[in-house]
Amino acid sequence: MKRKVFFEGVRDGLPIGLGYFAVAFSLGIVARNAGLNAFQGFLASLLNVASAGEYALFKEIQAHSLYVEIALITFVINARYLLMSCALSQRFDEKTGLLPRLLVGFGITDEIFGITVARDGYVEPAYNYGAICISIPLWCIGTSLGIIAGNLLPPNVVSALSVALYGMFIAIIVPPAKKNRAILVGVIVSFVLSYICAKLPYVKEISSGNRTIILTVLISSILALCKPVEEAE
Q1: Radius of gyration of the chain (CA)
Q2: Long-range contacts of 151-160 (CB under 8 A, 24+ apart)
Q3: Which DSSP state fits 121?
Q4: Engineered SS bond to 38: which of 28, 51, 121, 144, CB 3.0-4.6 Å?
């Protein structure tokens, strides 16, 4: 039974992994610009399975930020996975041990969370193991290959590939912004305030990482107070 569930996870995780590979390749270009080699990029992706978190990580490394600042901005950007893990913790069988819970939590991403909660009944660790073992390696390999390609391709091609990641972020924010006015306002306000803070005297002297942390916490907190998510009955 567990073997069948495991391969169901592999089946559902494969298309996710292929999507991860393409995104991670672009992240690899960013990592290469930050001075990371293929092994370092692979390790960074293995320990931080999140596109936005990794992008922030690589940009902060490129900016020679302090370790504390890098850790803090990565924590803030990836904080949503704490909520996803808490939600999944309510779906485990009481007999499920601590190690399987930790392994499932380690491999939680937006997409894997989505396919997990879509299944009926308890969370089956074997299913998540299958999805993780196919998707995360593709994510890590994609980052490494992006770094290798960045070292081999001409500078103008590398510069063009660096723009691809911004296209991915636009693809992430536009659909929900079209459906939810609060998200649209949050996105616009974020763009405007980021630009203003980069130009204001004294404020612009704050490192980009710290500005991102402050704006992320401030804007998300105000939106949460003004427009909380409505709970379904």
Answers
A1: 19
A2: 151/32, 158/29, 158/32, 158/33
A3: S
A4: 144
Going by C-alpha positions, the residue among 37, 19, 20, 22 that lies closest to residue 150 is: 37
Which amino acid is present at 138? L
Distance CA 189, CA 183 (A): 10
Q: Which of 46, 6, 14 is nearest to 27 (CA)?
A: 46
Name residue, tokens 């980021």: 194
pLDDT tens for the chain, 233 residues long, are 688 999 999 999 998 888 888 888 888 888 988 899 999 999 999 998 888 888 888 988 988 888 888 888 888 888 878 878 888 888 888 888 899 999 998 888 888 888 888 888 888 899 999 999 999 999 999 999 999 988 887 776 666 666 665 666 676 677 878 888 888 888 888 889 888 988 888 887 776 667 777 887 788 788 878 877 665 55
Angle, alpha carbons 24-184-231 (nearest 5°): 95
Tokens 């306002």, residue located: 185
- Cα–Cα dist 211/216, whole Å: 8
